[in-house]
Amino acid sequence: MKTRGYQVILLVLCAHFISVTALEEEISDSAFDNFLELIPSLRKERSGSVSARFSLRKPSDPDDDVCYIVTGDPESLKECDFNTTSKTFLVIHGWTVSGLFEGWVGRLVAALYEREPSANVIVVDWLSTAQNHYIVAAHNTKMVGQNIANFINWMEKTTHLSLDHLHLIGYSLGAHVAGFAGNHVSNKIGRITGLDPAGPDFEGAHAHQRLSPDDAHFVDVLHTFNRGSLGLSIGTQQPVGHVDFYPNGGSFQPGCNLRGALEKIAKFGIFAINDAVKCEHERSVHLFIDSLLHKQEASQAYFCGSPDMFERGACLSCRKSRCSTMGYDVGGARQARSATMFTKTRASMPFRVYHYQLKIHFSSNLNCSGVEPTLTVSLHGANGDAKDLHLNINEKIAGNNTHSFLLVTEKDIGELLMIKLKWENRSKWTTSFMLKMVSSWWPGDSTLGSDMEVHKIRVKAGETQKRMVFCLKNPETPGVSQELSFVKCKESWKFHSKRRGLRRQ
Ligand SMILES: *[C@@H]1O[C@H](CO)[C@@H](O)[C@H](O)[C@H]1NC(C)=O
Ligand SMILES: *[C@@H]1O[C@H](CO)[C@@H](O)[C@H](O)[C@H]1NC(C)=O
Ligand SMILES: *[C@@H]1O[C@H](CO)[C@@H](O)[C@H](O)[C@H]1NC(C)=O
Ligand SMILES: *[C@@H]1O[C@H](CO)[C@@H](O)[C@H](O)[C@H]1NC(C)=O
């Protein structure tokens, strides 16, 4: 039930992407239905033997397989220079059309070695099985997982390595492979990271049939492409770890061609993996690589009950482990089960952004039914500016109400010194409101070109957890101005009593 509510919210959130939404309907009507029909017939087809190979890659040669560790062959450990005292990573790829490793594998290996130079980074090669039709490959993930579990059990017995030092990183189908490995291994694995775990055939499945928090002492998951219909999407929508991160809501990623991805899916089905689809899905891997390479600039994510609340900036709290670094250095919320964390990102590496909550109180003498102006904000900080940031208005702005917004900046602007708020009219406005607005131009006492006034803006910075109040710079400015400047005022941050419930969530 919880999951369903979450999906509904996601769809509502995205409702304003009208053309894209229409496309999704097409998808649900055609491709997904066909896909579902395919399942029973394909289930019968099985590939015979399932075997995985374990290639210990070298820091100097992250792209190539030069040495395989063979289960049951202790000599192979020596030949590959396996270091029994350091951390061991198993990188597990997903479904493949080409039957070749994708480019990210070498990049992830290199990033792991950059962060943990003495580690053993083992690439699990199950390409021959992963190359089958998706449904066959998905069905075989359990056997591949068992295969890996046998390998891990043997390694533990032979080298006495501590499973606490073992970290499985699985992408797409590989995330579920990691889950099955964790489920079948004799002792518990330290950590599994699921990078956009595959959705089809796994969404809504019982915890033993997919990656779940039972599979390791700690399971962290990044969701980057969970748009879809009928519960079917490329990546899982439901939380499947102890901590589940939904960068940019998990639904689509900046810099990717979402439209292209959805068109492709609508036309050729959910497994028509083209560059646009890959961009969204594979973003999970690059976010993780980013967290390895840019430790000091790791993205911060915040616990939030729903993406909608996060979009309103209501969840930028770090109290009681409510915020955490995303990716390799994840912390904080480790005890919690299925904590859902949200963050925004840039379109490219380093992905980190800086989050701000703006609470703006709009006051008005007139009773208007509410307006939806275009509001843009510029933040001026000690280290730079972030100009023309759009405020997402989810509900109409009516008199005497406080609205909360989420704003992000791509760079660290340092201490916030001034905020400029621009109010622009929209063609959508009703005639009656336009008339009201025009009439309110003349008295000269309005500040926003309408009867609306803003005197204060309360700001909370997510990354620094600082709270500030900004007051209108020149409250006496005569005439009408569409751009207002706000500077820090003496008063400390206070919560509007009506909004208290919102923050507590
Ligand atoms: C094995 O790893 C440890 C750190 O975990 C390091 O101190 C040691 O030098 C490594 N041994 C070899 C042979 O590289
Ligand atoms: C605004 O509307 C409410 C009821 O909707 C009414 O009670 C109030 O008197 C109105 N105020 C003004 C200033 O028109
Ligand atoms: C908003 O509050 C002000 C002062 O508290 C009051 O004069 C005004 O009528 C209120 N406006 C509405 C629409 O209720
Ligand atoms: C709306 O904006 C345009 C240009 O920004 C301006 O010319 C026009 O007068 C505005 N209309 C009203 C009613 O404020």
Q: Profile the largest sheet.
A: 11 strands, mixed
Count of helical regions: 13
For CATH, the homologous superfamily of the largest domain is named as Alpha/Beta hydrolase fold, catalytic domain
Q: How many strand units? A: 21
How are strands sequenced across the largest beta sheet? 2-1-4-3-5-6-7-10-13-11-12
Shape: elongated
Which bin fits the share of residues in helices? 25-40%
User: How much strand content do the residues show?
Assistant: 15-25%
The CATH class assignment of the largest domain is Alpha Beta
- What would you say the CATH architecture of the largest domain is? 3-Layer(aba) Sandwich
Question: Any low-confidence stretches, pLDDT <50, length ≥5?
Answer: 1-48, 427-432, 438-449, 495-505
The rounded distance between the terminal residues' Cα atoms is 18 Å
Rg is 26 Å
Number of domains: 2
